[in-house]
Specification:
The N and C termini lie far apart (63 Å). The chain is of the alpha/beta class. 46% of the residues are buried. It has a domain of 186 residues: Rossmann fold (3-Layer(aba) Sandwich), CATH 3.40.50. The structure holds nicotinamide-adenine-dinucleotide. Nicotinamide-adenine-dinucleotide binds next to helix 4. The site of nicotinamide-adenine-dinucleotide (NAD) has 28 residues, from helix 4.
Length: 421
């Protein structure tokens, strides 16, 4: 049985490792975080994802999945570590991938394949990771294969999408690409695998997320415009999207997550001509400021230290992931303006920007409830109960997610971002 060593057991690495382990492959999952490894040894995934506990159980029962903090000898090494943004220079921080390559070097043998699934900047497979791995004395393309296959699965539906999404595979050589194609055919349908070169595969992923970032920036610009024009952006976007070739995304308080808010910068760093991309980034990054401006308009200037309740700090609805969340920027800005912040997010377990409170505590004495995340559970909130706890019945819904009629019936004044009709 082929043996795969997966480095990085996060949102992408763990489901990938388990899909191989449940498809006729022996897998050793490696993570430098011993808490992750220990939790998985006990059969407990360290984050929420649909179907993940069952998949872990299946792999452990089959005895095809082990975890370790150390790399082991294998036929294939798959790197799924984080690639954050270097916030000072706005470039990809690839040090975790480089470390992954260095950890593989002592175990790399002739005929092995190294696959990078992490999102990386254009040309880095050839110019950085190849060179790092060749410190082993082995030559890429001759002694071992180096391949990039970007991951595009969405948190919340990762396992389904890892199997059913189209997969782009690009190796430094055709032989490597072909070998990787055969490997992924273990769980991805043949007709959904597309083979190309490494640089193209790197850029495909970045283009996809840049496209979405630009589309959201456009929706945000439409929202701000709608406030000025006295119309409802949600209604206009709905009607515009009836056009068979139009698909405008939703406006909101900013863009977060590990991909869309970051990946466009990986393209910007490689070219001098990415002005549109930078403009979109700047529009989306300005949305927390705009949300704060709307909050101040709602509150007026009477209250000295208003109490703001934040509903949702996950970067998007129905996930527990707060990475790059616009909530953090909004909270920092609001605090600078003397606002007191109380936070409720029933899905998140931890958050850097403040204590997560039960709903009743978070809304107590509130002057304004600001909805940052479109969790479905917020649709079910009982405004009658909340009305008894708040100081002022103000709501700013930046995601148009609440059942507004229900809230209005209880005397709440509702402001929806982008709706000034
Ligand atoms: N999360 C997503 O939705 C998503 C979607 C598509 C692509 N991606 C990309 O996939 C990559 C992984 O993202 P993620 O969300 O799974 O990250 P993550 O932060 O959830 O997980 C990364 C894991 O790698 C471990 N790690 C770091 N360096 C290591 C090393 N050298 N050896 C072993 N383990 C190491 C960390 O401890 C962590 O557990 C990133 O490049 C990301 O941009 C993520």
């Amino acid at each position: 049985m082929e043996k795969v060593c997966v480095l990085g057991l996060g949102y992408i690495g763990l489901p990938t490792a388990l899909l191989f382990a449940t498809h006729n492959t022996k897998v050793v999952g490696v993570d430098i975080n011993s808490d992750v490894v220990n939790s998985l040894k006990k059969g407990i995934p360290h984050f929420e994802e649909k179907g993940l506990p069952e998949l872990l159980k299946e792999a452990l029962d089959k005895k095809t999945f082990e975890t370790s903090t150390e790399v082991v000898e294998a036929d294939v090494f798959i790197i799924c570590v984080q690639t954050p943004l270097d916030k000072e220079y706005h470039v990809a921080d690839l040090e975790f991938v480089v470390l992954g390559c260095e950890m593989i070097i002592p175990y790399l043998k002739k005929g092995n394949m190294v696959i990078i699934e992490s999102t990386i900047s254009p040309g880095s497979s050839e110019n950085l990771f190849r060179k790092t791995l060749e410190k082993s004395g082995l030559k890429a393309g001759k002694d071992f294969y180096l391949v990039h296959t970007p991951e595009r699965a969405i948190p919340g539906n990762t396992i389904y999408e890892m199997i059913n999404n189209h997969r782009i595979i690009g190796g430094l050589t055709k032989e490597g690409t072909e070998k990787a194609r055969k490997l992924y055919e273990k769980f991805v349908p043949k007709n959904k695998i597309h083979c190309t070169d490494a640089k193209t595969a790197e850029i495909v992923k970045l283009m996809e997320n840049t496209y979405r970032d630009l589309n959201i920036a456009l929706a945000n610009e439409f929202a701000i415009m709608s406030e000025e024009l006295g119309i409802d952006v949600w209604e206009t976007i709905k009607y515009a999207n009836f056009h068979p070739r139009v698909d405008i995304l939703k406006p909101g308080p900013g863009v977060g997550g590990h991909c869309i808010a970051i990946d466009p910068w990986f393209l910007v760093e490689t070219t001098l001509n990415a002005q549109l991309i930078q403009m979109a980034r700047s529009i989306n990054d300005s949305m927390p400021y705009y949300t704060l401006r709307l909050t101040k308009q709602i509150l007026g200037s009477e209250i000295e230290f208003p109490m703001i309740t934040i509903l949702g700090v996950a970067y998007k609805g129905n996930v527990d992931d707060t990475r790059e969340t616009p909530a953090l920027k909004y909270i920092h800005l609001a605090e600078k303006y003397g606002m007191q912040i109380k936070i409720h997010d029933p899905l998140c377990k931890e958050f850097d920007g403040g204590e997560l409170l039960p709903l009743e505590e978070a809304v107590k004495d509130s002057d304004c409830i600001v909805v940052i995340t479109d969790h479905d559970v917020f649709k079910e909130l009982d405004p009658a109960k909340i009305a008894k706890l708040v100081k002022q019945k103000n709501v700013l819904d930046t995601r148009n997610v609440l059942d507004h009629e229900k809230w209005r019936k209880e005397g709440f004044k509702i402001k929806i971002l982008g709706d000034n009709k």
